[in-house]
Sequence to fold (200 residues):
Amino acid sequence: MPRRTRLPRAFYQRETTLVARELLNKVLAMPDGRAGRIVEVEAYCAGIDPAAHTYRGKTARNATMFGEPGHMYVYFTYGMHWCANAVAWEKTPGAGVLIRALEPIAGLPAMHEARGGVSERLLCSGPARLTQALGITGELDGIDLVRGGGPGIHDDGTHPPLHPVLTPRIGIRVGLEHLWRFCVPGSLHVSPARVKSAQP
DNA sequence: GTTTCGATTGTG
DNA sequence: ACAATCGAAACC
Fold:
């Protein structure tokens, strides 16, 4: 079993897009053993980024993003889905990294049970799919990913890709000029692209 | 107080 | 292409 090092707080106290890139190929692990390798992320930055939940300032919902780097911001959307972020900012609070897809690596039976009869390719390939597979809900909003004993992000010795795939972020209508979505090249577990509907 | 809409997903 | 589904954000 490879040695796994939980990422230190200082890791998250850096410029958000750098943290995003370096989270690729790290391992998101739950205390019950469910774990996956991070293969797709998006950076949401403070102040300048109209797509970020924090763009208009602190609210009850997004308060975690203004808190300690290295904590987990979990939000509810579309009336049914949870999505998970790692809070990551250096100077300006209110920024973080949305975890968009994992390659499942441990606890697959529990993941399949949580997700129903889906293929392994779709098990954790999407921001709400992976939270469902790992059992992440709003109860975990604000938890410390650095402290041991709970969910955490680990380094198992697999380096981030030297040349990650850069694209605009998914599912937003503003801030498309930024290439702040980062993927592991060639990963089969990146969230599947949706066919863009033709213009009338 | 009321309306709009979303950092999505599954199905048709 | 579209419905599901509900709370936060946006707008009066």
Q: What stands out?
A: The radius of gyration of chain A is 16 Å. The mean pLDDT of chain A is 95. Residues 56, 59-61, 75-80, 197 of chain A lie near DNA strand C (CB under 10 Å from a C1').
